[in-house]
Fold:
Amino acid sequence: MDSSKSKDSTNSGLQETNSDINDEEKNDLCPGFKDADAFVKYGLGAVLSATKASAGLPQTGDEYDFYRSFPGFQEFCESQGDKLLHCMSQIMQHHGCRSRMRDRNKLTGLEERFDLVVDSNDVILERVGILLDEADGVNRNQQPVMPAEFQPPKIVVSSWNRMGSSSGSRSETFRLLQAKNIARPQMKFKEKVDNSNTPFIPKIFIKPNAVKPLPSYFTNKQIRKERPEDLDVPAALADFIHQQRTQEHVEDMFAHPYQYELDHLTIQESVLSKPEPQMYKPLTETKCSFIDTLDDLVALNEKLCKLSEFAVDLEHHSYRSFLGLTCLIQISSREEDFIIDAIELRSELYILNEAFTDPAIVKVFHGADSDIEWLQRDFGLYVVNLFDTHQASRALNLARHSLDQLLKHFCNVNSEKRYQLADWRIRPLPDEMVQYARMDTHYLLYIYDCVRVQLLDFNHGQPGLLQSVWNKSKDISLKKYTKPIFTEESYLELQRKQKRSFNTQQLTAFRLLFAWRDKLARQEDESTGFTLPTHMMNKISEELPKEPQGIIACCNPVPPLVRQQVNELHLLVQQAREMPLLKVRKDGCQKVSESDLQHCSPDGKLDTLIRLIILLILNSASFLKELETQNDHESLSVAQMKARRIIECFENPFRMYLPSSDVHISKNAKFDPSSKIFEISKRWKLLSMEQQQKELEAKKEANKKAKEEAKERTKKESLQNVATVRQQAAVSGGKKRERVASEVGESTPKPSKKQMKSAEKPQKTEPPPKDSFKPFDYSQSDLKVFAGMYFMLTICLFLLYRGFRHNWPKR
Ligand code: AMP
Ligand code: MN
Ligand code: ZN
Structure:
């Protein structure tokens, strides 16, 4: 099948030309065959016999190895193999897929080739699907031209999405108009794109039509361009100076530069009264100029300034850029159409502000929401006196509000939105795309007339409804562009939108991948969708592949940056796998229920006791936090007191051997014979029962004593604030009685930092004997720091034990 030809026929902008090509195509659809059926029959036969033949080949591990010991056979296989690879390569090339099948030196070998085949099959099948749909007359919503995995980074409000919303979920995937090797326009930009994770600051530096002058921040190039790192002083000082300097401008920096003008804009009488619709000129009789030089742009601006209205639309590209970039600006007057190369003239386009912000000139857009933001972001352009025909369509309660509908309704023009998602960076711009682009504005001024008439008629000649459309349009022109900002919570927003339930490991992977993707996308100036499409990110998070190859397998086709950084990604997934496994509640909290613990053991039959312990452990982190916020005993409920006591009896006896607090300890370390923690835990296990018994008794004794003493002390000193359990325990230690007493006197029920520090220090007054294991003085533990970890360790040991004697939990 000749794909290039069928593409032509699907891409033609107007419907009459379609039928000609279709007729011509019918004749040589399947050269050498009577009709398509004959071709299919033949093709099917060929595929069947090929399948049969391949099944008849000697199998590995069967006769194959034997046969292969004959050089003749080996040679034959190799040459046939090469032939096949060549054939496949050619088919792939024909379909515009990657096709380096024959490169025998490739390390990845078979797997790589297999990927290539899968990718190509996907591309070809997708194409077949589209063509079949088209033959059926379905024409899939005439969707062009985006990569299958393309996900617009955010919802773009323009004429299209009204149309899209009515056509079901199938239209979510788009195919990119294949334009290979488009040079990245960003390379040519005079001013580098600012993808940093900082808020957007308007680009404007000259303000035509100002009623209120532009704040000095924007006019003073020096302040604007100055970065802290450019100051010739030490970094910390530079930051400080920079902060001081910008602080006084903050309000201006983030305000809408034309806020004042827009707030004081009054709609002219002339546009509120009923117009006589002025018919558009036929496309063929209208001059269309492509503007890509500064001279032409200046001339255009002069022209526009003399008009009383003109129509504007933008074409945009968002796949190979982090923030997106405007590629074209289409402008139509009643007489002429203009297509501005917004990539070429990017840093000059600001001069159009003279016409765009002139309150005496109406600018007609259709669905301007995104356009307004893109104009600010890329050129520092603003619009004063906007009329949005999409708002008019809504006010008129028309059935649909897309530009297509208005064109059909008012101009009886059938437009196809085929190029809406085309790659608008292509230069030179193919003529069909120019023609398409100009249709977006060519009829708009006539539509502007028509809707104004209807809005007045609809309201029995009263201007109220029309006025409301002007007001809504003004609100749109007041919109400010905001840059996507990455925060620690950004991933949750996306995760919540997807309504997937992830466990802690999956959610961690999702969070780490999200951060990786954001950082890399900013750095490489690619969209997040290009870097790692969300559905692939979901798949990786869900599957948590153990091998880098598994990550590749989650992606089809594999995004180039994923392939490049697969090892980094693998490390992130590994990190996620080290999280304790819990389900995540809808509200994002991570409390566990007993049933969740089934996941902790492969056979799902953990002993109830163990499960209860784990439950306690897993919830202890949040519980401890809750306890920490309680100020004293009096505010603890009986249940909380009880729970606290339970937790306290889980204190870590070998805490003093562990690294200082806040050090992340990998779970694996506890199972790694070379690690310190493994050694400690083994020692602990080997501790004789006798010794443990002794300790227990000693502790009981000490506790009893402590309680008595504490009681006495409480009475004697008649304390207002009761000490915490921990402090009471500390008192019982006896060794630090004086200190603790003074602290109690200070009435600091919450353990102070100072206290924690001192608890961590090994005893200086009574150094432990070097050889023997000295039981730890429980009374000095800071349970909050290590309780959770110790719990985990206990469980790990239980599980280890179970592993060695694997019938144990069943009894
Ligand atoms: P339009 O105003 O219809 O010409 O659309 C302007 C720009 O919006 C196009 O160049 C596209 O970049 C973008 N756009 C249009 N339709 C879609 C869509 N369905 N999804 C994402 N972006 C779109
Ligand atoms: Mn538009
Ligand atoms: Zn458009």
In short: The first strand starts at residue 287 and ends at 291. Residues 689-717 form the longest helix (29 residues).
